[in-house]
Amino acid sequence: MSAEAARGSRPPVVEMRAVSKDYRLGKATVAALRDVDLEVRPGDFTVLAGPSGSGKTTLLNLAGLIDEPTDGAVRFDGEDTVRCGAGRLSGLRRDRIGFIFQMFNLVPVLSLFENVEYPLILAGCPRAERRRRVRDALSKVGLGDRFRHRPSELSGGERQRAAIARAVVKAPALVLADEPTANLDSANGAAVLGLMERLNREDGVTFLFSSHDPRIIAAGRRVVRLRDGRVESVEDGGGRP
User: Fold this and answer.
1) Helix%, strand%, coil% for the chain, nearest 5
2) Top-level class of domain 3-109+163-236
3) Do residues 145 and 109 make contact, with C-beta atoms less than 8 angstroms apart?
4) pLDDT tens digit string along 18-41?
5) Which one has a higher pLDDT value, 7 or 196?
């Protein structure tokens, strides 16, 4: 069985059906998403693309269990999240989802090692296991010799690689990346994209991106184009299968 067929035979990590999301702005109701269907399967490298205001970030927040739909169903690893309490949702985010942000979101007073270790501390991982996993994650992103440095001592590209290490260190079911190259120059952006492609290809890390970056869109194996809160098209991308 091919790698693509193997991915297709496994149940979705995230499954959304007829999802809508409204926000209240004063007395007005703003429809951020309308009747969206989305599946993200293990090993996917999927990109949400579209103009500002199209619903990309809202959809990413729903996939990351940061927000809840106004209507429709969201399932994570087969679990109906609409029926989950706040504690269960928090546990799923902590243990099963990694996040990569545009602004890196590293803690400035912590060393690189401590930043990457922090999610494992929250998850209750034993100290010896934490040390092994942090060193392995930093080595994979090319920062194995920088673990004592603080974020202020790193370049923008190094900070984003550190954020990637923090996202993957707990071996999550899903990594969400919100405009991960937006604050990087073209060379560092290409390097960070190449790193995420390698983690997907070699380690099977499942990625869901929100991005305007044409390089990320071109690399996506599936591109979900949004406009005005609706799915306009779902395309097979040019990324490596």
Assistant:
1) 40, 25, 35
2) alpha beta
3) no
4) 999 999 888 889 899 999 999 999
5) 196
